[in-house]
Amino acid sequence: MPSPRRRPLLVSVLLCALAVLAARPIGAWDGDEGSGSVLSAQVARLYEDAARATQQYEEGRREAEVQRSKARRYERLLDRQRQAVAAVHEDLGRIARAQYRGGGGLPLSVQMILAEDPDEVMRGQRTGWQADLAVDHIIGKSRRAEARLAADEAKARAAWQSLERRNAELAELKKEIEGKLQEARSRLERRAEASVAAGSCPGSVRLDQPEERTTRSWVAPVETYELSASFGGGGPRWAHRHTGQDFAVPVGTPVRAVGEGRVVTVSCGGAFGMQVVVRHEGGYYTQYAHLAAVAVDEGDRVGPGQWIGQSGSTGNSTGPHLHFEVRVTPETGSALDPVPWLARHGVSL
Fold first, then answer.
1. Which of 100, 229, 296, 347 has the fewest Cβ atoms nearer than 10 Å?
2. String of DSSP letters for 247-311
């Protein structure tokens, strides 16, 4: 974990990197509307850029909240310390007034001349001096503690305010990247719909795979999602019952192979639009439908978590989502409920 001394430098580097990403024009990647391969790669890059920007913004926001909490805690401690110093001063005032009244306001030499027992006067005087020294020590210690707390409070407040300014810049850059991503998604969706309508599937797009590959044998078909239509549900869009589990995700979201297998079908057209079917060990098949782009060819070997396409809304679809099925044959009509099937493989949705 980077030290607090290095954090401002890291944030500055991050801001520069995100600024470069946000400044890259759409045309720098995609060329023209028909350049499907480059357009799909652009969406994938922007998807990753937006995810990183969101992560860094959330980390900065959490760190700012930590620093703000520290500043508030130091401020409360500082208030209590100031109250303690004020109480010591009040006690000192009472002691001084009592000493003045006890001595009648006379100088020490006069008190000794008039006293019946001068030694008693001296002992009382020494006790007073010791009390004064003790009080001075307490006040000095309290003042030093107050100064330390004030410095800590100022430091935490300055760090909080600096992070807030950087977070505002990060939020603006994040917004720019997401705007470019939305524009690219719209173009990808239009291109995919045109291809399906023409009955001519574009070739596979070899997307750059994420650097961090999963170590798990089975994963969910998309990383972040909301579950929508479930297996067996009824509705006007299906001739009988819904044969899979739908994952509501934006156009261009990377779609992952849920486990190791071989691609047996890459097709375009019909109710499922662009789709990929993968055969797994044990004779099971998984289908990924309504895609906007595919990233594999028939016969390819795939591993768990590997990107095999990008979500879309092609075919019989009312909005962007991934239709995911588990079957015992590569064709329709042999679907199983995918939720308990994935659960048996350690994947909870």
1. 100
2. EE--TTPEEE-SBSEEEEEEE--STT-EEEEEEETTS-EEEEEEEEEE---TT-EE-TT-EEEEE
pLDDT digits over 255-304, tens only? 999 999 999 999 988 889 999 999 999 999 999 999 999 999 999 999 99
Whether the model clears a pTM of 0.70, i.e. scores above it, the answer is: no
Give the side-chain half-sphere CA count within 13 A for 219: 19
Collapse the DSSP code of 325 into the 3-class scheme (helix H, G, I; strand E, B; otherwise coil) and give the result: strand
From the list 325, 252, 248, the residue with the least C-alpha distance to 294 is 252
Angle 199-205-207 from CA coordinates, rounded to 5°: 150
Give the tens place of pLDDT for each residue, 120-171. Answer: 555 555 655 665 666 667 677 777 877 887 787 788 788 788 888 888 888 8
Separation between Cα atoms, residue 215 and residue 281, nearest integer Å: 18
Residue with tokens 């603006």: 172
Radius of gyration of the chain (CA): 36
